[in-house]
Amino acid sequence: xxxxxxxxxxxxxxxxxxxxxxxxxxxxxxxxxxxxxxxxxxxxxxxxxxxxxxxxxxxxxxxxxxxxxxxxxxxxxxxxxxxxxxxxxxxxxxxxxxxxxxxxxxxxxxxxxxxxxxxxxxxxxxxxxxxxxxxxxxxxxxxxxxxxxxxxxxxxxxxxxxxxxxxxxxxxxxxxxxxxxxxxxxxxxxxxxxxxxxxxxxxxxxxxxxxxxxxxxxxxxxxxxxxxxxxxxxxxxxxxxxxxxxxxxxxxxxxxxxxxxxxxxxxxx
Length: 269
What we know:
Blueprint: E1 3-9, E2 18-20, E3 22-26, E4 29-30, E5 36-39, E6 58-61, E7 65-69, E8 76-79, E9 87-92, E10 95-101, H1 104-114, E11 119-122, E12 150-154, H2 155-163, E13 178-181, E14 191-196, E15 199-208, H3 225-234, E16 242-249, E17 253-256, E18 261-266
Parallel strand pairs: 12-13
Antiparallel strand pairs: 1-2, 1-13, 3-4, 3-17, 5-11, 6-7, 7-8, 9-10, 10-11, 12-16, 14-15, 14-18, 15-16
């Protein structure tokens, strides 16, 4: 049986992971996943690709607040759902969308920790950032994630990579929302659609990997062997290295660790 073994959210894009036993889906993806983002002074998104130190930024959530922690910094809490704030236009890849600026106090804290000028912004309910229409319907939206609401990876796929490395690699380097067990390595490449707890998901597109998997999520140190090795057996004809599958959900609801994953459509692996 294929089943969920991990559910993860990343409230601030490119910052720390929170693992959950259960998670609800809204129109953005898993609730609170990548609804916050760091931007530079002109509003362009910032990630670990340029600032590996972001991996050391820890995030915790309560019913009312998002709590930020980092080495050598005093913890800082901000409202989970900002009721007001300066509306600013931000850029994620080629997309421009509106966000709420979280204020100078948070900006100073983040800038001090990261060593460069930046601001924290929040995507409100009123913002609609569409998924690439090549893979999605007109009503499909996404948060500040790179392009899709959800990312799925199987434990077997990670094990296949680890077997080719000098030492095992942890799943958190690849930042999936859903991790599954009970299938063969890269079986997810052949899935067209799945169902979890009565919720349908389209397996929209494979995930082209950037340099982020080279970054240790506990230390910020870089190990380029991971992508070098992955490229030897996962590089496609378009020269991209693929690992994991992007999903688009077809409805709201709750999914949980240990839920069965039903394969409802298959293509050609």
